[in-house]
Write a structure and sequence with these properties.
Blueprint: E1 2-9, E2 12-25, E3 28-40, E4 47-49, E5 53-59, E6 63-72, E7 77-86, E8 89-101, E9 104-125, E10 128-139, H1 145-151, H2 158-161
Antiparallel strand pairs: 1-2, 2-3, 3-4, 3-5, 5-6, 6-7, 7-8, 8-9, 9-10
């Protein structure tokens, strides 16, 4: 797509273009979402707008999957999801990084969800199998331990801790 932008910035009329791009090269596909430029109507210097999102997907014999990054430079917030299948086992991650609010870098926060699934499970002996393993890491984030303890036995956290499509469902998760 190609969007024509018309607006006011610093009390000046500006024009711009914004677009997205996809590139497919064999088993690799890449996408860049919403990048472009604006220029003042009075002929001033154009300014480039970096992409709002970057995606990559691959489909090789041993490794399949991909990920997507959402980039919000104004709010200094970056989030992404990764989903890889390596020899049938899946490795997944979801992360949200807040690099501070505009004018206050002390508001740094990081949330990361990491997990792996093993189809058919890994045999541990004595008829025990390990089907999935995961963890949450939060820096300057809090967890409601009581709510987690209540939700885990009911299976309500399965969609958060072990989502089937972490890349596609990342905005909701």
């Amino acid at each position: 797509y190609l969007d024509l932008l018309i607006g006011v910035k610093d009390k000046k009329l500006v024009f711009g273009l914004e677009t997205a791009a996809k590139l497919m090269l064999g088993p690799v596909a890449a996408s860049i979402d919403r990048f472009g430029f604006t220029t003042p109507a009075d002929g001033g210097k154009p300014s480039f707008h970096p992409p709002k999102g970057i995606g990559l997907r691959m489909d090789f014999a041993l490794v399949k999957g991909g990920g997507f990054l959402l980039l919000d430079y104004e709010k200094k917030r970056f989030s992404g999801a990764l989903q890889l299948s390596i020899l049938g086992a899946s490795v997944n991650a979801i992360a949200i990084l807040s690099a501070g609010t505009p004018g206050n870098d002390a508001d740094f926060a990081l949330f990361t969800l990491l997990y792996a699934r093993f189809p058919g499970g890994l045999e541990l002996g004595l008829r025990f199998t390990l089907n999935a393993i995961g963890g949450l890491v939060g820096i300057n984030h809090g967890f409601d331990i009581a709510a987690l303890e209540k939700a885990l036995p009911s299976g309500a956290m399965d969609d958060v801790l072990f989502p089937d499509d972490p890349v596609g469902d990342a905005p909701r998760i």
